[in-house]
Write a structure and sequence with these properties.
The chain is mainly α. It is about 60% helix and about 0% strand. The protein has helices at about 1-10, 20-25, 25-30, 45-55, 70-100, 105-115, 125-145. The longest helix is centred in the middle third of the chain and has 33 residues, at about 70-100. The protein is elongated. It starts with a helix and ends in a 6-residue tail after the last helix.
Length: about 150
């Protein structure tokens, strides 16, 4: 229902595509406290789209709607965005867990990560988390090549 409302609003040109803006810029805007930037724009996809699709004002007591990672992907780049959102979320998360479990004593950390990331499927892509995980993946790969091999 919610994703359908979003798609209809985008297809009727009531709402414009973001073309990746919310994925590229907003994770870094999140780092700036509102105490320093009092007119800081909304950064959460759920908040932004709830205002745009349902003409509400965040903070006025109306419920915020989540549009799933696929709704967010559609808002960013149409159908290619849906595919990209799926890739960014699932593939990066799976690769992170796989690489994490290659190290000793990390099984509980991997399970903890999986349990904590699962709710985002229903919500939106935590892009800052995805970017952090990409950095962590790169770091794990580099570290694994730098550490001496225990293979005999």
């Amino acid at each position: 229902m919610w994703v359908n409302d979003l798609v209809n609003d985008i297809d009727s040109s009531r709402i414009d595509f973001e073309y990746g803006y919310n994925w590229v810029v907003m994770p870094f805007v999140n780092l700036i406290p509102r105490a320093l930037w009092q007119d800081k724009p909304l950064t959460s996809t759920s908040n932004i789209l709830s205002e745009k699709v349902y003409d509400i004002r965040v903070g006025d007591g109306q419920p915020i709607t989540t549009f799933t990672i696929w709704g967010e992907g559609y808002w960013q780049a149409g159908l290619p965005g849906v595919i990209l959102a799926t890739f960014l979320f699932f593939i990066v998360s799976c690769a992170f867990v796989y690489l994490l479990t290659m190290f000793q004593h990390t099984n509980y950390l991997a399970i903890y990560y999986i349990v904590n990331i699962a709710p985002f499927v229903r919500a939106e892509i935590p892009m800052f988390l995805v970017l952090t995980n990409l950095f962590a993946l790169l770091t794990l790969i580099v570290v694994s090549y730098l550490l001496p091999s225990k293979r005999a």
